[in-house]
Amino acid sequence: MDLAQVRQLFESLKGKIQTPRDLEKLRQTFLGKKGYVTQLFKELRNATPEKRRELGKLINALREEIDEFIKLKGEELKRKELEEKLKAERLDITLPGDTVLPIGSKHPLSAVIEEITEIFKQMGFSVETGPEVEKEEYNFDMLNIPKYHPARDMQDTFYVNEKGYLLRTHTSPVQVRTLLKREPPVQIIAPGRVYRRDDDPTHSPMFFQVEGLVVNESVSFANMVFVLKVFLRKFFEKDVSVRFRPSYFPFTEPSAEVDIGCVICSGKGCRVCKGTGWLEVLGAGMVHPNVLSACGIDAEKFRGFAFGLGVDRFAMLKYRIDNIKLFYENDIRFLKQFVSL
Ligand code: PHE
């Protein structure tokens, strides 16, 4: 290629440079070791001295022109790059702050536990708690459920490696703990987490119970019926019918299961009450004398009643939720529906 052609090629490529890479390629094409301009200089050797001087000047001029172009274009590209970067990272520090902080809400289970607690407090109960990793002795033995007693199968237990410990299957061990540390009269409730090997739309391996225990010298089954009726009607905010069915728990005698008229269909029969018109909501009974004795309390002198309820079930009935898992997945779309609690 002669000088004119090289210049023409340069002129035609000039306008196409977009990036620093393009520019570097251009530099190599003309000024690199095998570049066209370098080539022209090499070819000068074959020219006559006069021509050499004349041509040399012209080639030099072209080289300087290309050099200058590369310098200016390089600066321009750098400037452009910086401008774009600044534009992309633009941060308007004069904007007012985001004042609308999203406000959380109480978890429906927390709200229901608080509500239950409040109702019982108004009736003179105080609140006790116990550990979730519990002694087998308190969860079973002292509640009149000796080893190998078939009643242990009623609750599928998670055992903890350490011998003699388990995840409590109910809040009833708090009865034992309370009676071991306090003289009657006792009038407590004990809300908390319990664990069972159970998992379906109405059972979760971890769920919540509220235990109730009253021990004094004169308490009767009739007192228990009254307390539970008052509680159920306050909680469901209507005059629900309540019925006591004979049942069995090793730690109460007599024992009862407590049903309320279905709050979904008002007793007409629906899917939730399986057409019976009744919903089982509580286990209850008079504290078994063996439990009192095991805790060092004179079973001749003192009597008691106890009850246990499933918080999840109460919450599901009150808010018409048909899958217990919704309480534990904590999907924000579910939780948002309880902002007023
Ligand atoms: N602990 C029983 C259960 O989990 C409920 C219960 C508590 C029954 C107190 C009677 C008295 O099924």
Specify the oligomeric state. Answer: single chain
Element pattern in H and E: HHHHHEEHEHEEHEEEHEHHH
CATH architecture of the largest domain: 2-Layer Sandwich
Biggest β-sheet strands, sense, barrel: 7 strands, mixed
The N- and C-terminal alpha carbons lie at a distance of: 86 Å
Give the domain tally.
Answer: 2
CATH top level of the largest domain is Alpha Beta
Query: How large is the radius of gyration?
Result: 42 Å
| Structural class estimated from helices and strands | alpha+beta
Please explain how this structure is put together:
This protein has 341 residues and is α+β, with helices and mostly antiparallel strands. The chain folds into two domains: 86 residues; 231 residues, BirA Bifunctional Protein, domain 2 (2-Layer Sandwich), CATH 3.30.930. Helices cover 40% and strands 19% of the residues. It is built from twelve helices and nine strands. The strands form two sheets. It has a seven-stranded mixed sheet with strand order 1-4-5-9-8-7-6, sandwiched between helices. β6 and β7 form a beta hairpin. α1 runs parallel beside α4, α2 runs antiparallel to α4 and α5 packs across α10. The N and C termini lie far apart (86 Å). The model has no long low-confidence stretch (mean pLDDT 93). Phenylalanine binds next to β8 and β9. It is found in: Cytoplasm. It catalyses: tRNA(Phe) + L-phenylalanine + ATP = L-phenylalanyl-tRNA(Phe) + AMP + diphosphate + H(+).
How do the helices and strands line up, and which of them pair or pack?
Blueprint (H helix, E strand, L loop, with lengths): L2 H12 L5 H12 L4 H8 L5 H40 L19 H15 L3 E2 L5 E3 H4 L25 E3 L5 H9 L4 E10 L10 E11 L4 H15 L6 E8 L2 E10 L16 E10 L1 H6 L8 E8 H9 L6 H4 L2 H4 L6
Parallel strand pairs: 1-4
Antiparallel strand pairs: 2-3, 4-5, 5-9, 6-7, 7-8, 8-9
Helix pairs in contact: 1-4, 2-4, 5-10
Bound molecules: phenylalanine (PHE).
Phenylalanine binds next to strand 8 and strand 9.
EC number: 6.1.1.20
Pfam families: Phe_tRNA-synt_N, tRNA-synt_2d
Family: Belongs to the class-II aminoacyl-tRNA synthetase family. Phe-tRNA synthetase alpha subunit type 1 subfamily.
